[in-house]
Sequence to fold (170 residues):
Amino acid sequence: VVREIAHKAKVEPRNLILLVAATSSIAGSLQINARSVETGLHKLYELGFDVHRIKSATGTAPLSPVAADTITAIGRTNDAILYGGMINLYVTGDDASIEEIGPKVPSIASTDYGRPFAEIFKAANGDFYKIDPALFSPAQVVFQNIETGKVHWFGKCNEELLRQSFGIRD
Fold:
């Protein structure tokens, strides 16, 4: 694998450094939670939105607690984005198309929404492709039209589900 990657990168294998982090580690949790913008942009692309209208984007998601096992870690890291992630998109163009596509973007638009991801993942026998693709998106999506000045906000944070997923007790 290293030789193949090095070959494609046109570097000597000895000059290639691969970073690997288990999902159930702080680094693993961080690198997955940092993908809120990526998931939102992918969802918009899949919905047919012209992503070239997006001039800038920022995103946040809570850093999920490290889990003792991989399935719990996969659940927590995904829940951080699905139920706690928020992206801000600075866009151009008309507002009508944003109003039309906006409700379809956040994770709440999915039929799988509302259960911890670990539960959804187990029900799909560990096969991501059996999960409703509409689920893979941040909880909240904010479009800020830099031409019209209008702000469009879709979705909501689900703090109760995050508390459940993260094992937070009152």
Summary: The chain has a mean pLDDT of 96. The longest helix spans residues 70-84. The chain has one domain: 23-166.
